[in-house]
User: Fold these one by one.
Assistant:
Number 1:
Amino acid sequence: MMKKTDTKNERTLTSKKRMKLTTQAQRLAYILRGKNRRAIYQVLLTDPRTQSEINRKTGIPLSNISRVIDQLEHGTLIENLTPFQSIGALYQLTDLALEFKSEFEKHMRFREKNFTE
């Protein structure tokens, strides 16, 4: 049960602390549940990218990209390749995130064929 707090930031931190992605299936489901997480994962499959590059490829606002990157870093699904660089940080998928690449691609082909968003 999530503790009730006064601010949105406190709720976000509380929920981040509780995120435990222990299996490959849980990690894949976590990516697939969010439209922005799916898009960012898909863009990072090809090459490491900055937040601005992700924005240009996906059209997701930078503020949302920053939030999703924080979530994915906390879940150890992406890593910052330039941790001491505050502007233009470069992100890539971790080995953990690449473990379910083929399942992700299979699911995306299914979605493309059967659903429209």
Note: The longest strand covers residues 78-80.
Number 2:
Amino acid sequence: MEITSVNVRKIEKEGSRMKGIASVLLDDSFVVHDIRIIEGDNGLFIAMPSRKTPTGGYRDIAHPINPEVRSMFEEAIIKEYENTEDEEEAEEDTEAAGEEEVEEEDE
């Protein structure tokens, strides 16, 4: 099994430990949506999609069945999350540089 694509949508909600939502495409043929990216006490981790049970608990809808696959998911998702942050920062740097050029032209 190969992870062929990871999409991350960052979420910035004040007071929330949830930092984003991810979708993972497997072998270009099966996708898992709504994987939550959570800020824990020891860093980021993922929580698989789940639903609330009638008793008030939660049950995973889809999840890895061994630690190796869970680690593969977590590493790919967190890497994409970190790259998404870097891309946004790069865009801000590019915009700031463009504003500086405009200011220089005005002088």
Note: The mean pLDDT is 86.
Number 3:
Amino acid sequence: MFFIEEFLNILIQSILPIIITTLGGFLAYILNKIKKCLDEKLQDEYIENIVNSTIKYIEQKHYNLKGNDKLNEAKKIIIERLKFKNILINEFELEILIECSVNELNRGSDNFDKFKISS
């Protein structure tokens, strides 16, 4: 009986560090994935906020511009604001976000008003 207890004691002392290390690594991996998802979500919200506030700005300050001139001015401002935070966005995605923002603004959507102008 003493032999079995001693064997189990040695086994537990040998395996416990391996189990703790494995669980620690797994926990670190999971937390890293969660952080990455949250960072992406925050960045997406930040980009959307920048686009919407810029569209409001363009509508207020550059009301005399038409069509492509407004689009190009909006792109220029948005890219500059995002570059300040080291965020890159491709042209296609930027145009989609601008068009969605303009559509919401033109419809007078309540969702559009939730975005604050940020710097």
Note: Residues 115-119 have pLDDT under 50 and may be disordered.
Number 4:
Amino acid sequence: MYGKGGIMKEAKRICVSVPRSLLEEMDSMAESEDTSRSEFIRDAVRSYIHSRQLYDLRESLREGYENMASLNLKLAEACIDVENESSEVLLENLTGGGDVADL
């Protein structure tokens, strides 16, 4: 990952402006974690990207479930009718057409 002189391969240098108070907080946290400012920012960006991807996935799943809700309800209603009919036929076969209480 690192080349000669400890310089990161394929790394691009960027310039980011942040309020002084945020910079001081970042530097304090980076120092307490014994890491450089650059590595601290890279970790923070990776963490944000991962969190955002999880959020986007959850939103896609939620939308999918909402879109399928009416179809799922129709399928469940159709299946309950078939299940009820099957139960009636089974009872008739078991009882020989008589009353269940006669079993």
Note: The CA atoms of residues 37 and 93 lie 78 Å apart.
